[in-house]
Amino acid sequence: MGTSSAEAAFPPLFRLAAGLRLVLASHSPRRRQFLREWGLPFTLLAPSCDEPRPLPGEAPAAYACRAARAKVMAARAAEGRRPAGDRRLLLGADTIVALGADILGKPQSAEHAMAMLRRLSGATHEVISAVCLLGPDDEEVTFHDVSRVRFAAWPDAVLAAYVATHEPDDKAGAYAVQGQGAVLVEAVDGSWSTVVGLPVTPLATIMLQRGWMQPAG
Amino acid sequence: MGTSSAEAAFPPLFRLAAGLRLVLASHSPRRRQFLREWGLPFTLLAPSCDEPRPLPGEAPAAYACRAARAKVMAARAAEGRRPAGDRRLLLGADTIVALGADILGKPQSAEHAMAMLRRLSGATHEVISAVCLLGPDDEEVTFHDVSRVRFAAWPDAVLAAYVATHEPDDKAGAYAVQGQGAVLVEAVDGSWSTVVGLPVTPLATIMLQRGWMQPAG
Fold this sequence. Notes:
The structure is a homodimer.
Chain A: E1 14-16, E2 21-24, H1 29-38, E3 43-44, H2 60-79, E4 88-99, E5 102-104, H3 110-120, E6 124-134, E7 140-151, H4 156-164, E8 185-190, H5 192-196, H6 200-209, E9 213-215
Parallel strand pairs in A: 2-3, 2-4
Antiparallel strand pairs in A: 1-9, 4-5, 4-6, 6-7, 7-8
Helix pairs in contact in A: 3-4
């Protein structure tokens, strides 16, 4: 990892178990940032894989778990044959925005982003983040967390100004709660990090329980 | 304002009303960051003033409003006589952490931070952010917003590792939800920005309603 200002080192909050290496199967800058804030070293192995499509009638949470697992399995396939005794922990995640039974993906255009934001405005939707962990002996732990997000009701002019910032372009549901989109969100009921894209509290709990990391110090 | 990487310009989401200048009566880096994310230019005028102390029996929200107002009034006193026709909007804010009837301030030492975090661990507390606005004709708008924050139950070793990062040192309640402290917080019920220190959604709504700003574009 470089050490540009965006990747400044944090005093460690956790440390990995001795001999364990952490491999992140995600391109998301915010997921990397959470791990940096924990003080954990990691490498990236996120081969592009065909993102699974939701199946007819599949529950949003089940779909998110399946997508997180697909990222981890693509990384596992890419890592090839590991040396004997190699201890790695693969971490993949997927985040989806669900409005009722509809899953909102990334917008295809400014008009599409505007249409999504109009649907979210004045309403409550769910953000589901799923995490798949594959431990040193290929033991798998997959879990998900759900947060409810309530948008204030915004006039079109505000939504259009937000679309014009281009922040929505590559965001599921066409907004970023950790960015300029923060103002749109009246309230969250649940974990904020789940809305950002990584449920850090249950993730830390599981990693501590499994002995994959310890508190620093 | 400088233009270091931490102060990068954002594509504007809002713009101030013509002729209006915004003056922030706060030293908080996160409050500045929210205004930058809106794309609003502002200057700082935050003279050190004696922070008011909670009165016996005073409700936490009433105290937060009084403290926000005190910051604005200190800035108003410091600005001296304004030229005729000068149109400025003063903005002050205060954030407090309340556990039951107790208001938790900034920790005085590492031991004090540890004691606060032990009280918050496994419990739900309230974060109250109050904002005071003083418009061009000295018209005053003061409001507050309350969010409930639930900490997961953490062992002492995790809390001690967090104290050792020094992030708690200058934070009310000894944690920063937007920083390494994010992992401690299992759930928020309410506005995340209120927990960070500025209730951006009601603030934007009021500023739009009063005509102090408009959507950009």
